[in-house]
Amino acid sequence: MKKLKQYFLLIGLMVVSVQINAQNKVRIFGELTGYQPQAVIYFTYTDVVKEKQIKMMDSAKIVNGKFEKSIMITEPSKMVLIMSPDGKQLNEFKKEEEKTVEAITLYVDKGEFHLKFEGSFSNWKMDPPVQIVSEYTTLMAMLNDRNTGVESVNRRYTRGVNMGGDVEVKEGEVDAYQQALERVNRSAVNNVTGFIKNHTKSYIGLVAILYCHQFQPGLGPKLSALLKDYTTELQNSTLGKKLRVELEMSR
Fold first, then answer.
1. Confidence of residue 212 (pLDDT cuts 50, 70, 90)
2. When comparing pLDDT for 76 and 6, which is higher?
3. Measuring CA to CA, which residue among 127, 105, 104 is closest to residue 31?
4. Do 182 and 216 touch, CB atoms closer than 8 A?
């Protein structure tokens, strides 16, 4: 009887383990044509290992115009898919090849989705359309607008970047430069703050807080207050803990 109980306990633990593994997986199915049999797709992403974010890499071969990959992720992750048409490893790419490499960037959550490439690796559709991917695209568009604004300000008020990596402001333009930069950052913060408030139950909201803090560190107290509206699970995630510490230090 004791052995039988141990057997059922072991089976129960195995079932729980399988369920947890399934819940932590992202499964990617892809369809594409026009590539040689030796073509390989590489996946680069980050995952949390012992509360540290570690860069990871995996790969999948294309067989009869299709590929499939299951990857364990602890938290949602930005993932870059890189096409190697002739099967080269990433470290074998020459510098001139890196400029023309075919790659797409996704922001993936746990679950299953299909990618269909039409005509080229850069022309793709996702089924079902994963909401977090579109949210990530929206956030990146906001940040790109801010970067474009900063570049415009730099072109108008600076001579460029010196050898030390510092921006050289034109003589007599320091005040105008700082005011213009402040307007760009304030506009970006207003946009991203709205995004943060609307995503208190989504990991992408934490990513928005991180970016917002990076280009306007003085907002530490305001961002700390916004972070408190997030779910306990998100606040206790690796990124949530990191943000709490960084925001507290910037007070």
1. confident
2. 76
3. 127
4. no
Helices 131-157 & 203-215 angle (0-180, nearest 10) = 10
Q: Nearest Cα to 32, choosing from 97, 90, 83?
A: 83
Beta bridge partners of 108: 77
Residues 212 and 243: their CA atoms lie apart, in Å, by 11
CA nearest neighbour of 185 among 139, 147, 129, 222: 147
Threshold 0.90, pTM exceeds: no
Query: Would you say 206 and 243 are in contact if contact means Cβ atoms under 8 Å apart?
Result: yes
State the DSSP H helix or E strand holding residue 89, giving kind and residue range, or none if neither.
none
Query: Does residue 60 surpass a pLDDT of 90?
Result: yes
Bridge partners of 70?
Answer: 27
Other residues' Cβ atoms within 10 Å of the Cβ of residue 142:
18
Note whether 69 and 28 are within 8 A (CB). Answer: yes
Lowest-pLDDT choice from 64-73, 122-131, 143-152, 229-238: 122-131
Spans of all domains in the chain: 2-129, 133-249
Q: What is the pLDDT of residues 84-112, one digit of tens each?
A: 888 888 788 766 666 678 888 777 777 78
* CATH architecture label of 2-129: Sandwich (2.60)
Q: Tokens for 231, please give them.
A: 């779910």
**Residues ≥6 apart with Cβ < 8 Å to 88:** 40
Q: List phi, psi (to 5°) of 195.
A: -65, -45
What pLDDT is recorded for position 163? 64
Bridge partners (DSSP) of residue 43 are: 58, 81
